[in-house]
Specification:
This protein has 210 residues and is of the alpha+beta class. The protein is 34% helix and 18% strand.
Amino acid sequence: MSGLICRGSDSRGEAAGDAVSRLQRYFDEGARFHGMLSPGLVLGIFMVDLAQEILGPREFVDAVVETKACLPDAVQLMTSCSYGNGWMRVKDWGKLALTLYDKRSLEGVRVCLDLARTRNYPLIEQWAMRLRDIGCKEEVAREIMRAGRDILSWRKVEVARYRRPKNAPVVPCSSCGEAHPSSDGSLCQRCNGREDYYRPAGVAAIQSSI
């Protein structure tokens, strides 16, 4: 496939304002789903829209997102790909980029924020490069809406075939008794001390009073 990098042109011939009107339902639904209309969510909605247009209608589409922040929610909102069903993979690379691709042919479209073009939009550049603390994120979101696809680049890619790891057999933890993957050993990840995110309510107070 071509390695040509293309600017995020509006092949529909629509102005950024028209694109916002066309995508308004995603902005509204996204604000409810995400908890707020963040700059990353707005950017992700424009990215997914562009990738879908370039890729064209496909029966089965998967996604790869290169950051854990905001963009995954745009993919889940606008496609059938989600983290839960396994059709969206999330790379913790911290990059404002995503790829939609045909699950069978592996042909895809990668869309990213074009830093060179953000120089025409100083507020977006400052947000993306974390040049300063921007208190009003809504202002950045509005600026991204004004910019639309003008701050995006895309290229056609071929995605490496992903083979999902097989699930390990499940066994009861020898400490807590809960089911967990046997690949972790006799103890689950919490009981063996590798992972922990909670403690039973009141345990610390009881222990400190003994």
